[in-house]
Fold these 2 entries.
Entry 1:
Amino acid sequence: MSERAAIYLTTPIYYVNDVPHIGHAYTTLAVDMLARFHRLDGRPVKFLTGTDEHGQKVEKAAAQRGLAPLAFCDEVSQAFRDLCPAMNYSNDDFIRTTEARHVHACQALWQRLVEKDQIYLGAYKGWYSVRDETYFAEDELVDGKAPTGAPVEWVEEPSYFFRLSQWGDRLLQWYEDNPECVAPRSRRNEVISFVKRGLQDLSVSRTTFRWGIPVPGDPAHVMYVWVDALTNYLSAVGYPDESTDAYQLFWPASLHMVGKDILRFHAIIWPAMLMAADLPPPQRVFAHGWWTNEGKKISKSLGNTIDPLKLIDTYGLDPVRYFLLREVPFGDDGDFSHAQMVRRINADLANDLGNLAQRSLSMIAKNCGGVVPTPGPFTATDQALLESAYGVLGTMREHLAQQSFHRALEAVWDVISAANRYVDEQAPWSLRKTDPPRMATVLYVLAEVVRCAAVLVQPVMPDSATKLLRQLGLDAPQQFDCLSAAAALVPATPLPAPQGVFPRWVEPATPATS
Ligand code: MSP
């Protein structure tokens, strides 16, 4: 990501024609983990999410419900807002495209593009799909429908156009000069090939419906919903006032996290618009993959959408957060299955981390008078384990700079596994009789590794990490600068009674069939 201290992370803003599902929860969760990680790493962070509320689809959906568009948006936007505490997102801001600050920013950006002769009035004719909010050329239609299967209608309307066609070379230069600006690599290559095939000017206004931001000076037009939507990233840092602290600190954005379906808007149209307005483009756009449900594509019509609130109810919040970020190499598509979820809960959480903490802390409670044991000299083995626990942060930083959440978590689990092997090899339960001072040292080393693990899992499982830290007599949150011997557990500190933090999943008994 960026070399500067401050980090600005964004999610897409979600359409209000749908209730939140696993796809929305996933994008925001990924950003939440990054935001929490960087804050604990001592960097100023702005984490933005929100809702995308204009467009013909919303106008129609509101009419069907007999509601004014804004009343309809208020209701659905609230469902996305409510998802934030339910998923324990730490967003600093929630933007709605119907807010005055956003309307103001959009109109100012438009004006600036007009002044720079980047927007002109023309006419648009084409096959329009309301569902995709996109025009299709005749040869793109499949059996008279959009490639997505959505119905299309012939639309002829006067329209303003953005001179996107002028920006191909500048974009190609930008991708070349900034190898990290679009990721993952395969998607970056797709974007580059698309731009190399040549870009056309983009229709950026509509006259066929009213629910949008009026074009300055020509209110018969409203802005094309994607121009409106993309500008949210600027509105939230106070644009057009470039002198604000927020703008100075956070623009350009460090990372726009998006799903693979909306990469072109973010990696082509958005940077081109910014360059045309003489504003710096984002530092990075990352496109993640899509979830399927037990091997099947998720769709409203199949009725197999996954409700994040139900998942939390069934498996618990932190296990869901862990699973989503650990299960699939970030960037690839992934499959949600009950069996895999249970495997992660039982293997990674209950067995690996849960048992390590539970075994170590119970032995300390029973054999060390319920206080942090006083260690003797460390052996080379002790030292190596401690060093690896302190060193994971560096590895996590590298992986998270690439949005490799699964690898970052794997690195923590490597240390957890090493600690579990260490318990078996050192057998502190035998040392209790043969060498009590050595037992105290081994249990101290284990408690210290559990401390590091708890500190490192804070961004992905904040509640469970807090519980673990409290059992070690520590407050939460713990900043990452505590990951060193200098901040190690203090011998003789009293500890509360240990409690399991990661229960095993036990399949509910199914009634016997006769
Ligand atoms: N409103 C636009 C974004 C504008 S950003 C300036 C939009 N909204 S959306 O609600 O349709 O989708 C938001 C995000 O959800 C996208 O990043 C999309 O990839 C993601 N997902 C929707 N379904 C998904 C899955 N099944 N799996 C993973 N993510 C998916 O697009």
Entry 2:
Amino acid sequence: MNDIGVIENGSILIKNGKIIKIGTFDEIHSEVVLEDYEIIDAKGKTITPGFVDSHTHVVFGGYRADEYTWRLRGDSYVDIMNRGGGIASSVTKTREASFDELVSSALSRLKSMVRFGVTTIEGKSGYGLDFETEMKQLRVMKKLDQMQPIDIVRTFLGPHAVMPEYKGREMEFIELVNKEMLPFVKEENLAEFVDIFTEKNVFELEESRVYLEKAKELGFKIKMHADEIYPLGGAELAAEFGATSADHLLKVSDKGIEMMKENDVIATLLPLTAFSLKEEYARARDMIDSGLAVALATDLNPGSCFSESIPLVIALATLYMNMTPEETLAALTLNAAAAIDKADVIGSIDEGKQADLLIHEFDSYHYIAYHFGVSSVEKVIKKGKIIYDKEGC
Ligand code: IZC
Ligand code: ZN
């Protein structure tokens, strides 16, 4: 993760939205007729791959600003959830919201994300918890994917919370999801991944296992909310099922880290959530030093983490998780691309990959972390086209 392969005085040749050649300015310019190309001048700047936000809950109805205030006064996330607030509150508002309202509010969030240099995201359902609303959320993401430039990879998160009517009957809810929702999502190609909130008093290991077995049988790729609040062994379960990623991991065990590494599960760390919940950050250093691939994402959602701030992710990763600027960059690009199984098309500046690129102010990538809390992104290029220009806005 520290070997990021810097090219000084580099040039990138793009054709039909793809990177066709990279090298030094002299190498590229001696081989091509400049007049044949449109030039985007990045002299004195730094170019990186576009950021990939591989864990978001971008589509939701309403907000939970009241809960944030309660948490500031000392209530815990779990207390609020147990009183019927939390995810259940967003579920009610998402059920009430129309398709167009969900498209419109998520669209404004996506516009904000572009300004931070995000060119691809993963988005989850999970605020419906019934057939109709879960499918509505996935279809909203499909629509958003078609109507604006950021690519959206869809994840079905039916088992995100237990609504009061299913309290104590969690397995019955999982059986409903397995029988009625998963096969439909597969048939209609509404999601590539599945996810589950494996947590004490939400979905425990046994329920998670029954869900993941069905998902695997249907051919879904797997993500998990694992070991966020209580050390339940979610990481071990992710390893057992060959998950693409296990996310959060604030309370992961050493054995969980070891098993994830052995089974090539990516550790997606979400420092904005730890920050917002005033929890200790995930043990990024232990994970990276043991050879685990670490990705970073925002976890944008209306409850535990209402922020899409990539600059804050970078600041927390470097200052509080002791990740180097190079590791942080890898975690937000190539490793994040791998966390959504897209490392063969995005996440690095390589010949043949999609031309998703960022032009940052300053002539060294070190300034991206150094200028903390502020976005260094001046231009965002998606599939070869400029989709955001700080000067023009
Ligand atoms: O809406 O609070 N942890 N899912 C699992 C969340 C937090 C999102 C929320
Ligand atoms: Zn999440």
